[in-house]
Amino acid sequence: MARPGKQTGNRTGKTDPRLHPLRWPLRLTQAGLVCERALRAFWPLFSVLAVTAAALMLGLHDLMSPLLFWGTAVVALAAMLASLVFGLWRFRYPRRAEVLARLDASLPGRPVSALLDAQAIGVADAGATALWQAHQARMARAAAMARAPAPNLRIAAADPLALRYVALVSLLIALVFGSFWRVGTLSALAPGGGEAALAGPSWEGWIEPPLYTGLPVLYLNDQQGERLQLAEGSRITLRFYGEVGALTLAQNLSVQDAPDAQDDAQDPGLEHDIAVERSGNLEIQGRGGQRWEVAVVPDQPPSISITGLPELMEDGALSLPFLAQDDYGIEGGTVRISLDHLALSRRHGLLPDPETRADIELDLPMPVSGSRQAFEGLLIEDFSTHPWANLPVVFSVLVRDAAGQSSVSSGLGAPLVAPRFFDPLAAAVAEQRRDLIWSRDNSLRITQLLRALSHRPEDLFREAGSYLQLRGILRGLEVALRQGSATEMPISEGQRDETAAALWALAQSLEEGDIGDALERMQRAKERLSQAMREGASDEEIARLMQKLREATQDYMRQLQRQAQRDNP
Hints:
Strand order of the largest sheet: 5-11-10-7-8
Number of strands: 20
Structural class: alpha+beta
Number of helices: 14
């Protein structure tokens, strides 16, 4: 019922009017076919050009002898010519029929071919003609929705060894680490290379800042202007090409070791490694040379400051804020905490001279990620068991940078905040522990106070176990005192530490309690909160005690609910 029609146009060579709505999809399809065939035909040429350019930009020719270089050049030119001939022989520009076939194959029902068909039979039949026109209209609507198919750029079958990727990676490495200026040094390998070197630079230089600065390596040939600002400790590497003596170096950036050395002395060598130790001049003398004024930027020492008073966190740890700054980055630091003897109230158990105790030294917390040039941080540490807990101390922070410079903050006098005991008996026991660690000369006084506490236990102790624990500690301390008096020596350090640990466990047991009854725990929590408010406790301590009161209240309510369920199932 249909016969194929002309697909390329009419007799005058113009495009078929029926294809006018498809002009842009056809053009894009044709461009995709050109890309496909060009890639399949010329990928060897692109690969050879990329490898050659990468070798020149990386300066591999500078490492070759002239004979090896020219042999390699002949091979590269032959490879370029062969790949060009291969590409021209294989490349075929897509014809109009091929473009129509590619676009038509991407559409369901091939509407483009149907649109260009002509009615073969039933031309005189009005019904057949109407049916054919309806079919053409439907195909025209389907063709109007055409979109250019994506070109197939996969050439893995033509390049099974992936040589194109090797060439591409080589070119990317050259773009990152190489330079276009290296191509100019080819003139030195040609006959009369000394004169041909005028066509490009005859020297190269790199500026390498110290590693701790984090600054990138700079290519000296790309630097604009005649003034350079370099970090102290940078190194300048220069390489001259051509005959020895054609270019000379004059500089006064390095401190000379010899006493009679002269600044700006000329050096005709080809390789130069200069340590930038002071400001001065750097000059390459000769044809194509250049001169710079170099200003050395000294490394500034770091700075550290404590930005607030120490605070007690909800978990009982101390929190101390600080701010650290440096021009390139902080390497590390130390927090030192020393006892403030001038602000200390020397009475009761603190009246005797304290035993020698080293200052507290902690590593400064550093940020895990991000810049260390300026950052705020918090020192968080739990000092609840330390003998200096809640005593006046002096905080000082030392920081250092990678250059070895350091700074110390001004001392901050403040208490070494730690959780306090608000149960009177627990506070008294904890105080005896502190006095024992302060000085073993307090041992006799502590035994007297513990004996006084245990005189009428029914008025002080809620549980018999706590009273028996106190009596055991007292007997052990008295035995140690009798042993010491026999040898005219105080109690040993081991006996002191053992007694202090037992007193701490007793104080915590008295403070927290081990009461099974929920109602008594709730009442105890209320008493401790009231005692803390009367003693002017900090907001963090009151918040912690209120949280414990809420937990005790919730336990009591749950116990009431369980009891009600048992009574009224």
